[in-house]
Specification:
With 467 residues, the protein is α/β, with parallel strands linked by helices. The protein has two domains: 23-310 and 428-463, Alkaline Phosphatase, subunit A, CATH 3.40.720.10; 319-420, no CATH class. The protein has helices at residues 2-19, 36-49, 79-88, 109-115, 131-134, 146-153, 176-185, 230-245, 258-264, 268-291, 330-341, 353-364, 374-388, 407-420, 455-463; strands spanning 25-31, 63-67, 119-124, 160-163, 189-192, 206-209, 250-256, 296-301, 305-306, 309-311, 397-399, 404-406, 422-424, 429-430, 434-440. The strands form four sheets. It has a nine-stranded mixed β-sheet, with helices on both faces. α8 (230-245) packs parallel to α10, α9 (258-264) runs antiparallel to α10 and α13 packs antiparallel against α14. It is globular. It starts with a helix and ends with a helix.
């Protein structure tokens, strides 16, 4: 009888140990639009240009898988359906935020974690109500319901939030200031960057914004000294969550949102620098892991690939070192081009072809540091003639999902990319698999993950958010 009692006691202890969550702290990074070639291309770019580490930190994680990203109604997902799958494990239709195929709300990781007593955080380099962060905050039928998402944030179970600002619905006259005031009136402490010193001492919910009027952080390639960057948000988030929830634990989602934006614009150098910028924030999570090695889980993945990036543009070679001559992103180059060649003063005088060539030599290295083939020069000059020639259109532009740029600037950046050996197939999403990179406590559970909808339930189980 005593022997049986001992066996029962041991069995009970084993069950108790098994039910104890293996993971206490979860860092969930989402590189929006970050395909496998974006990761490889970034390492090639950094090695050739010394713009960042030759080896991106998460490519060395013990788990490195490929996962599929199909949505509930399409082989090609958008960020809303992709974000919802990553946040909740539920497939839905493109454009949906936090609802299933029938429009019913689904619960997500921040809600599960908060209900279990854990701290929660949502951090992004773009608008806090943009598709990916919204998937961890709100439930709405259409991702463009920005004001609805912003309003839902006010009561969402998110202790720490950070982003550039609130994206506004163009159909109304409300501004980001209205929602900043709404946050304060809801009892949320609002801080504006880039300095968030003392954030850990604040009681209650916190919202950190960039401190500048734009609804996304500047591209890393364009950043100025006083600009807020993603790592500023991540440092603040870790300080706050560790101080207030270090005992129980926390979950935080961190999005590198403008990798996607740069790829929509077919701008390789800007995309590679954005990916490196997110990797610097991963370093902060790795520092936390080093302090809490047995309780911290770090995952990096993407909602989809953007642009159909190919490494190789016809020849069996690539020259990423040539991309070092690009000084700014395509949108900023457009602004520089406008200031240079479209002054407000009248009478207007069109620039010569030589003037335009000098601009691109200074800012992209074309003709000066980068050889331009006769066919590429002819193509660029044709756009020049359509813009500045007799009867030309001075507003001749190329539009992508996130910016409208001068056609000639867009073509010049494409010329540099192709000469360096990087070609985008188009300016939208692809159905290519993306990477899943995992390290820390419980990472073995992700070795067999093959689809984005499998990730959230696995996190929830490991961290004890759900049975």
């Amino acid at each position: 009888m005593k022997k049986l009692t001992l066996i029962v006691l041991i069995a009970a202890m084993a069950v108790g140990c098994a039910s104890k969550p293996e993971v206490k702290y979860v860092f969930y990074f989402i590189g929006d639009g970050m395909g496998i070639n974006q990761v490889m291309g970034t390492e090639q770019y950094n090695k050739a240009t010394e713009m960042g580490p030759e080896v991106i930190n998460f490519t060395q994680f013990p788990v490195r898988n490929f996962i599929t990203t199909v949505s509930g109604n399409s082989l090609i997902t958008d960020s809303a359906a992709g974000g919802t799958a990553l946040a909740s494990g539920v497939k839905t239709y493109n454009s949906a935020i936090g609802v299933d195929l029938d429009g019913n709300s689904v619960t997500c990781l921040t809600e599960w974690a908060s209900a279990a007593g854990y701290g929660t955080g949502v951090i992004t380099s773009v608008g806090i109500n943009h598709a990916t962060p919204a998937s961890f905050i709100a439930h709405t039928s259409v991702r463009q319901n920005y004001e609805d998402i912003s309003t839902q944030y006010m009561t969402a179970p998110v202790d720490f939030a950070a982003g550039a600002g609130f994206i506004m619905d163009r159909r109304t006259e409300r501004t980001t200031d209205d929602f900043e005031k709404m946050a304060v009136d809801s009892g949320i402490t609002l801080l504006k960057g880039p300095d968030f010193t003392g954030v850990e001492d604040i009681e209650g919910r916190v919202l950190c914004l960039s401190g500048k009027p734009q609804q996304d952080l500047p591209y890393a390639i364009d950043r100025k000294e006083d600009d807020t960057q993603l790592s500023d948000f991540v440092k603040a988030g870790i300080a706050y969550l560790e101080k207030h929830f270090g005992g129980k634990g926390f979950f935080v989602m961190i999005e590198g949102g403008k990798i996607d934006w740069a790829c929509h614009g077919n701008d390789a150098a800007s995309a590679f620098q954005e990916l490196t910028d997110m990797a610097y924030s991963v370093d902060l999570a790795l520092e936390f892991l080093a302090r809490n090695p047995k309780e911290t889980l770090i995952l990096i993945t993407a909602d989809h690939e953007t642009g159909g990036l190919m490494i190789g543009a016809g020849k069996y070679e690539a020259h990423p070192e040539l991309l070092a001559w690009q000084k700014a992103s395509t949108p900023v180059l457009t602004e520089m081009f406008r200031e240079e060649f479209f002054p407000e003063e009248e009478p207007y005088k069109a620039p010569s072809w030589e003037d335009v060539k000098e601009f691109f030599a200074d800012n992209l290295g074309l003709w000066d540091k980068v050889e331009v083939s006769s066919s590429d020069e002819s193509a660029l000059k044709e756009v020049y003639n359509k813009t500045f020639g007799k009867g030309g259109n001075r507003n001749l532009s190329s539009e992508n999902l996130y910016s409208v740029n001068y056609k000639i600037v867009d073509e010049a950046v494409k010329c540099l990319d192709l000469t360096a050996g990087y070609r985008f197939s188009y300016g939208s999403h692809s159905g290519s698999p993306v990477g899943l990179y995992v390290t820390g406590a419980g990472h073995e559970a992700f070795r067999e993950i093959r689809d984005n909808a499998q990730i959230a339930p696995t996190i929830a189980k490991l961290a004890g958010y759900k049975k």
